[in-house]
Amino acid sequence: WSRRDKSRSHEAATVLATVNQFNAVSFRVISSILVEHSLKPSERAAIICTWIDIAQELRLIKNFSSLKAIISGLQSNPIYRLQKTWQVISKEKIELFEELARIFSEDNNQMTQRELLMREGTAKFADTFGENDKQLQKVFQKQNHHIA
Q1: Are 85 and 32 in contact (CB under 8 A)?
Q2: What pLDDT does residue 104 have?
Q3: What is the CB neighbour count within 10 angstroms for residue 40?
Q4: What is the CATH number for 74?
Q5: Which residue range or ranges hold the Ras-GEF domain (predicted)?
Q6: Is 130 domain-assigned?
Q7: For the chain, how many structural domains are there in total?
Q8: What is the pLDDT of residues 36-48, one digit of tens each?
Q9: How far apart are CA 82 and CA 45, in angstroms?
Q10: Residue 75 counted as domain residue
């Protein structure tokens, strides 16, 4: 699904769609802040605050993919360099942004993100150890018995 081999893009269509969605959201964040050259820092700050509020709502509904896309857009170099704009944003809003950004910190092999996904119940998995493992073995034995 890489750019080098577009003929194989059908093999990873869902991955490609996910990447495209992520990029579209990130670019929308960036472009909404930068598209109008005549905006004052306070006007750009209002747009950034809106995106932070949207990110917080996404956090609450556990849409971590879109949340990460928005955080990535706000952390991009063109937005990060808007020093006068960031200075206008309230301390509380900056703290909220930093808290949301910490979710996706790469520190400790993205441990914060993984712990959050496990705690929130959004990372589903089947526990195949212990009692469940014994039940699976019984199912397989019955299937093998009927096949044989």
Answers
A1: no
A2: 82
A3: 11
A4: 1.10.840.10
A5: 1-148
A6: no
A7: 1
A8: 999 999 999 999 9
A9: 9
A10: yes
Residue located via tokens 């209002």: 46
- What CA–CA distance (Å, rounded) separates 17 from 135? 37
CA distance 64 to 31: 21
In a domain, 68, yes or no: yes
- Nearest Cα residue to 53 out of 70, 32, 73, 65: 70
Count Cα neighbours of 100 within 13 Å in the Cβ-side half-sphere.
Answer: 31
Q: What one-character-per-residue DSSP string does 74-125 give?
A: HHSHHHHT-HHHHHHS-HHHHHHHHHHHHTT--TTTTHHHHHHHHHHT-S--
Q: What is the four-CA torsion angle of 86, 88, 90, 91, rounded to 10 degrees? A: 60
The DSSP element (H or E) to which 13 belongs, if any, is helix 13-34
Residue-level pLDDT at 14: 83
CB atoms within 10 A of CB 83: 8
Domain membership of residue 112 (yes or no) is: no
Tell me how far apart the alpha carbons of residues 94 and 87 are, in angstroms, rounded to a whole number.
9
Q: Which domain holds residue 75?
A: 3-104
Residue 45, class by beta-carbon neighbours within 10 Å (0-12 exposed, 13-18 middle, 19+ buried)? buried
Q: What is the pLDDT of residue 42?
A: 97
